[in-house]
Amino acid sequence: MIRKNPSGDLPQIHPSAFVDPTAVLCGKVVVAENVFIGPYAVIRADEVDATGQLEPILIGAHSNIQDGVVIHSKSGARVSIGERTSIAHRAIVHGPCRVGNGVFIGFNSVLFDCVVEDGCVVRFNAVVDGCHLPAGFHVPSTMRIGRSTDLATLPKVSVDASEFSEDVALTNNALVRGYKAIQNEF
């Protein structure tokens, strides 16, 4: 479902992107080319700040927002998802938040008020809250990192994890083409 927010903003979706019919995109959302947005995803840019302003939620080219993902933002703050980035099933990205290029965010993970730089991997059920994660860092499953976390204790992304992230992105790019080819059949 594509709908306006109370301010009258309507999502802008590149014609090459695929948005599942069960997904909800509301308001000032910008979806770039060859993006996959899976079933029951919710991307909602509708809250304004104290002055009535609202920053967009941006989804970069060749990224995938998988089943049940929620992307929202507090008080009109910007959320940006880079290019070739995968946000896996049921993850939550709540702004303000910036996620870089080539990032993998695992199942059920939560990002809030943070920056996740290029090439990072955040594994399943992890929480990244109120911090800046430099490029190439790996957050293990179930770990919670925040302002007081010593980032020197986190490993760098391994070659295997990087290859896995790239494989997920490529697989979902193929899904875009496949679903676009049959979208008039449902």
UniProtKB/TrEMBL annotation:
It comes from the Bacteria. GO terms for molecular function: acyltransferase activity. PROSITE patterns: HEXAPEP_TRANSFERASES. The keyword Transferase applies. Keywords: Acyltransferase, Repeat, Transferase. Gene3D superfamilies: Hexapeptide repeat proteins. Coiled coil: none annotated. The keyword Repeat applies. PANTHER family: CARBON DIOXIDE CONCENTRATING MECHANISM PROTEIN CCMM (PTHR43360), CARBOXYSOME ASSEMBLY PROTEIN CCMM (PTHR43360:SF1). This is Carbonate dehydratase. The lineage of its organism: Bacteria, Pseudomonadati, Pseudomonadota, Betaproteobacteria, Burkholderiales.
